């Protein structure tokens, strides 16, 4: 498998912890490099063929400031040939009308730039009103709820890493 870049804010505690768990789930033989999303450059974002991107949802369905500020540069990139898997954290009870919207917003942006989304997961087991991360019966990434379903995250992360190992080939 090619080297994987995993992008997340090193200062966003929950998203960073999940990023580390994803790296661990791939195992020590995997070549995964962590990149701080708060300092990412266009060159860093395009140097990998396989990317995992951590995108929590802030406030009422918004991207975090660091990703929002990177969007203008991102929209100018040619991501054809790149496979991108997105994970995010949301709160399905506190924010049921925009659960994990950040994942869906980011997915739409990278798709418009030519990237292939991988890592779709089931919506089963979640209770919410709406999510921009929905694609039919699936989420367009790994959607986690550390506020209400933290006990389920470990298995979801491990299963997702196994899925990505296949999809990144």
Report the principal-axis shape: globular
Biggest β-sheet description: 6 strands, parallel
The CATH superfamily turns out to be Flavodoxin domain
How many beta-strand runs?
9
Number of domains: 1
List low-pLDDT spans. none
Distance between the termini: 6 Å
Q: Might you state the CATH topology name? A: Rossmann fold
Strand content: 15-25%
Helical element count?
A: 5
Rg? 14 Å
Sheet/helix structural class: alpha/beta
Secondary-structure arrangement, i.e. CATH architecture:
3-Layer(aba) Sandwich
What oligomeric state do these chains adopt? single chain
Order of helices and strands: EHEHEHEHEEEEEH
What's the pLDDT, averaged over the residues? 96
Output the keywords.
169 residues, Rossmann fold, alpha/beta, six-stranded parallel beta sheet, three-stranded antiparallel beta sheet, globular
Any overview of this molecule?
The chain is α/β, with parallel strands linked by helices. It has a single domain, classed as Flavodoxin domain (Rossmann fold, 3-Layer(aba) Sandwich). Strand 1, helix 1 and strand 2 (32-36) form a beta-alpha-beta unit. 35% of the residues lie in helices and 20% in strands. It starts with a strand and ends with a helix. It contains 5 helices and 9 strands. The model has no long low-confidence stretch (mean pLDDT 96). The strands form 2 sheets. Strands 1, 2, 3, 4, 5 and 9 form a 6-stranded parallel sheet that branches. A 3-stranded antiparallel sheet has the order 6-8-7, with no helix packed on it.
């Amino acid at each position: 498998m090619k080297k994987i870049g995993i992008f997340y804010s090193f200062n966003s505690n929950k998203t960073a912890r999940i990023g580390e768990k994803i790296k661990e789930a791939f195992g020590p033989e995997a070549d995964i490099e962590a990149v701080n999303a708060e300092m990412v450059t266009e060159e860093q974002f395009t140097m990998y063929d396989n990317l995992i991107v951590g995108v929590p949802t802030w406030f009422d369905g918004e991207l975090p400031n660091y990703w929002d500020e990177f969007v203008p540069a991102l929209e100018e990139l040619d991501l054809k040939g790149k496979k991108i898997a997105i994970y995010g954290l949301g709160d399905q009870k506190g924010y049921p009308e925009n659960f994990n919207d950040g994942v869906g917003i980011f997915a739409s942006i990278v798709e418009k730039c030519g990237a292939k989304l991988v890592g779709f997961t089931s919506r089963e087991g979640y209770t919410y009103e709406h999510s921009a991360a929905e694609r039919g019966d699936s989420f367009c990434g790994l959607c986690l709820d550390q506020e209400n379903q933290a006990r389920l995250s470990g298995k979801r992360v491990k299963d997702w890493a196994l899925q990505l190992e296949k999809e990144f080939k």
